[in-house]
Write a structure and sequence with these properties.
The chain has 120 residues and is mainly alpha-helical. 48% of the residues lie in helices and 0% in strands. It is rod-shaped, with a radius of gyration of 64 Å.
């Protein structure tokens, strides 16, 4: 009976040691495994699928466009400059009078010449 207890203790210690080693290895590899004792035969199951969250996607912040200013319609405005009046210079008036006088004398000469040409 002591032999059996010793063997059972050694077997239990071996199982615990193997389990501890297996757990340490599976903790590093991020996998899990199990051994079923109550099932006939050895059952080895695949580890569950590992889900990796996708990397975050960064997008630029939304661009804000200021709306254009409101359109305002109004009557067209016309501006006409005021009329400018120039007073004629007295020298121009004198020249104009001299020219009229010269034309009058020229006309008289022409009339006089015609008169005397027709007579003779």
């Amino acid at each position: 009976m002591t032999f059996r207890r010793t063997v059972l203790k050694l077997a239990a210690a071996g199982v615990v040691a193997a389990g501890t080693l297996g757990m340490a290895a599976s903790a590093n590899a991020e996998t899990s495994w199990s051994i079923g004792i109550g099932v006939p035969g050895v059952v080895v199951s695949e580890p569950p699928p590992v889900y990796y969250e996708p990397a975050p996607v960064y997008t630029p912040p939304p661009t804000y466009y200021q709306p254009p200013p409101p359109v305002r319609y109004q009557q067209p405005a016309y501006s006409v400059p005021p009329p400018v009046y120039y007073e004629p210079d007295s020298r121009w008036e004198e020249r104009r009078a001299e020219r009229r006088e010269w034309r009058r004398r020229q006309w008289e000469r022409e009339q006089h010449r015609r008169y005397y040409e027709e007579r003779y």
